[in-house]
From TrEMBL:
The chain crosses the membrane at residues 6-29, 50-67, 73-89. It comes from the Bacteria. Keywords: Membrane, Transmembrane, Transmembrane helix. This is DUF2160 domain-containing protein. It holds the Pfam family DUF2160. It comes from Pseudomonas fontis.
Amino acid sequence: MEWMAWTLPTALFFAAIAVMLMGMTVLELRRPCAERRGFLPIVTTRGDRLFIGLLVSAYLHLVVIGLTDWNLWVASLLSLAWLLVVLRWG
C-alpha cells in the first residue's frame, strides 16, 4: 500500500463509504425503496442519491485539495453535509 498516502482523513473517508454501502444494502433488503423526485432534476432511488452524493463529495475533495489550502477535514464536513441533504431531499 505504498502507492497511496494513507492519512487519517483519507482512511476515514473510505471507511465511511464502505459503512454507507453496507448500510444501504441492509436498508434496501429490509425496506425496498421507490423512485421519487426531489430537488435533483431526475427521478432517483436511494442508491442513485447515494451515488450522486459520493460523486460530488469526491469532486469536492479534489477541489479543496487542488485549489485551496484548507484542511481536508473542511472538505469532509462539507461532503457529509451535502450527502445528508441529497439523501434526504434530493
